[in-house]
Amino acid sequence: MSYVGSNPCLETTINTNTTKKYTHYYDINANEPDWKLIWPQLVEEVPAIIEASGVEVTDHNGAEYNQRHGEIYYCDFDEDQGEGIYRIIPFPIVDVEKGIWINGIGNDAHYPFIMEDEGWAFDRSVQTVHKPYDDVVTCILLRAFMLAPQACRISSDGDWDEWEPARSIYRHLFDEEPECPWRN
After folding, report:
1. Is 161 exposed, middle or buried (0-12, 13-18, 19+ CB in 10 A)?
2. How far apart (Å, rounded) are the C-alpha atoms in residues 15 and 156?
3. Residue 104 Cα to chain centre, angstroms
4. H-helix or E-strand containing 44?
5. Helix (H, G, I), strand (E, B), or coil: what is residue 54?
6. 73 pairs with which residues across the strands?
7. Alpha-carbon gap, residue 66 to 61, rounded angstroms
8. What is the C-alpha to C-alpha distance for residues 182 and 184, in angstroms, rounded to an integer?
9. pLDDT tens profile 3-21
10. Helix H or strand E segment including 174
11. φ and ψ at 145, to 5 degrees?
């Protein structure tokens, strides 16, 4: 990818890599005082982000859950009964103590997004390859950055324009324009 101009958040971009994997990178300093203050708020706001996105998400094991005829069940093999049984697809993990663990469902899943309130989470990344849950992931990253910019370093191999669905969700929920979180 090459940028026209010096600021990748503000300038027009030219995508020269049509096979990019589309990954977001984030470092969170959970020891930062601002992070400690905003963490409960961020966790509380995640369900609203999920709902506003209109995207069905689950926990980190999303690729294991294959929907059946658009229902919210997945088939699991019960060894005791020796047959497949249908179980309800679990909700994503969104908890102040356990953290945020989100993925898409079935074919709409890729790598899980994990954000926790522990120490210094350095070199974290999530590859979403533009699957629908990307809107949820990028909106959560935007919200974290807007609430505690000193505690977050966020970047992406995607363009700022590709974050428009998340930016739209953000504007709708929080009534402000999010800033691009990448730092030059």
Report:
1. exposed
2. 13
3. 10
4. helix 33-53
5. coil
6. 88
7. 11
8. 7
9. 333 334 433 333 334 345 8
10. helix 164-174
11. -65, -45
- Model pTM score: 0.81
Cα–Cα distance, 62 to 38 (Å, whole number): 27
Tokens, residue 9: 């958040």
Measure the CA–CA gap between 139 and 82, rounded to whole angstroms. Answer: 42
**Coil/strand/helix, residue 30:** coil
- Helix (H) or strand (E) run with residue 5 in it: none
DSSP 71-94: -SEEEEEETTTTEEEEEEPPPPEE
Q: Are 165 and 84 in contact (CB under 8 A)?
A: no
Q: Name the residue with tokens 């294959």.
A: 66
85/105 Cα distance (integer angstroms): 18
Type of residue found at 171: R
- pLDDT per residue over 45-93, tens digit each? 999 999 999 999 988 777 777 665 455 555 666 667 666 666 677 788 9
Structure tokens at 59: 């926990």
| Tokens encoding 156 | 């992406």
Contact between 58 and 93 (Cβ < 8 Å): no
